[in-house]
């Protein structure tokens, strides 16, 4: 309201003090039209303010009948259409002002300097606000679609903590998976958990029952002879799967045991 009122007052002052100027293009008419659009916009803003106050008052009354609701909706639609029409007319009027400024050229600047510069300032303000709105929209777009995913990734990395180092991963015991045959039926839960030393040419074998022969990371069944890795909590996974996991998050995917600190995340 204050911004548009300032435009109206400046327009009135310049027109009243430049009665002796005789512009070659109808700049005085254009400035009056510009001021009229500012007055209309002020009226729409004030009407919207009054409508919201009336709606807030009616919220406390239960006898707000259908006629009142219908009248309020019609009132809103009418003012929305009028404001849209005013916006379109403002854009068209800006084109007229720009055309008259260009057509007047240096002659217009010599005959009516104050009207000329006032029109240029008004046109420049409109262009500035248009560019400002576009820049703000681009910034919002970049923030929503570029910065937020990066911030979310950083926050997630900070939440899960640091991953394990390559030395920590290599120090974990590794085994060759073997299907548990029928001779081990009475010892289904007994597995060999004695890794061989680094000086040995062979690898310890890990016998597991069929219901326990699946990697919870990739969700694939173990194949006979595949290399597995066991964590301190005795949960086992494909070596490649758990290595990728531990580089990002040094906790067991199942029980959340931290292999670096030896505690569990709550």
Contiguous runs where pLDDT drops below 50 for at least 5 residues: 60-67, 183-201
Quick one: overall form? rod-shaped
Mean pLDDT rating: 78
Percent of residues in helices: 55-70%
Biggest sheet statistics: 4 strands, mixed
How many DSSP H or I helices? 6
Compute the CA-based radius of gyration.
38 Å
Strand content: 5-15%
N-end to C-end Cα span = 55 Å
Helix-strand pattern, N to C?
HHHHHEEEEH
Number of domains: 2
Helix-strand category: alpha+beta
| Spatial ordering of strands, largest sheet | 2-1-3-4
Strand segment tally: 4
* Oligomeric state of shown chains: single chain
Q: Which properties best describe this structure?
A:
Herpes Virus-1; four-stranded mixed sheet; rod-shaped; 2 domains; 266 residues
Question: What's the structural blueprint in terms of helices and strands?
Answer:
Elements: H1 2-17, H2 27-58, H3 66-111, H4 113-160, H5 166-170, E1 174-179, E2 205-208, E3 227-230, E4 236-238, H6 239-248
Parallel strand pairs: 1-2
Antiparallel strand pairs: 1-3, 3-4
Helix pairs in contact: 1-2, 1-4, 2-3, 2-4, 3-4
Gist?
The chain has 266 residues and is α+β, with helices and mostly antiparallel strands. 59% of the residues lie in helices and 6% in strands.
Fold and architecture overview:
- With 266 residues, the protein is an alpha+beta fold.
- The protein has two domains: 2-158, no CATH class; 166-248, 2-Layer Sandwich (Herpes Virus-1), CATH 3.30.40.
- Helix content is 59%, strand content 6%.
- The chain has six helices and four strands, in the order αααααββββα.
- It has helices at residues 2-17, 27-58, 66-111, 113-160, 166-170, 239-248; strands at residues 174-179, 205-208, 227-230, 236-238.
- A four-stranded mixed beta sheet has the order 2-1-3-4.
- α1 runs antiparallel to α4 (113-160), α2 (27-58) packs antiparallel against α3 (66-111) and α2 packs across α4.
- The radius of gyration is 38 Å and the shape is rod-shaped.
């Amino acid at each position: 309201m204050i911004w548009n009122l300032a435009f109206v007052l400046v327009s009135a002052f310049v027109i009243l003090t430049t009665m002796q100027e005789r512009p070659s293009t109808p700049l005085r008419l254009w400035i009056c039209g510009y001021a009229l659009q500012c007055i209309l916009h002020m009226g729409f803003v004030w009407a919207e303010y009054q409508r919201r106050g009336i709606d807030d008052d009616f919220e406390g009354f239960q006898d707000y009948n259908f006629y009142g609701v219908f009248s309020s909706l019609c009132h809103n639609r009418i003012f929305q259409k009028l404001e849209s029409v005013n916006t379109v007319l403002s854009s068209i009027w800006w084109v007229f002002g720009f055309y008259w400024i260009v057509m007047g050229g240096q002659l217009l600047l010599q005959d009516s300097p104050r009207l000329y510069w006032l029109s240029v300032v008004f046109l420049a303000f409109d262009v500035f606000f248009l560019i400002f709105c576009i820049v703000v929209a681009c910034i919002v777009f970049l923030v929503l679609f570029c910065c937020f995913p990066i911030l979310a990734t950083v926050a997630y990395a900070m939440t899960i903590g640091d991953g394990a180092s390559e030395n920590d991963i290599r120090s974990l015991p590794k085994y060759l998976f073997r299907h548990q045959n029928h001779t081990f039926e009475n010892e289904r839960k007994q597995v060999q958990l004695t890794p061989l030393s680094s000086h040995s040419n062979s690898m310890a074998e890990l016998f597991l029952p069929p219901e326990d022969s699946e990697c919870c990371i990739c969700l694939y069944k173990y194949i006979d002879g595949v290399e597995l890795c066991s964590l301190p909590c005795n949960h086992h996974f494909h070596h490649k799967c758990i290595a990728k996991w531990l580089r990002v998050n040094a906790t067991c995917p199942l029980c959340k045991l931290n292999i670096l600190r030896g505690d569990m995340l709550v």
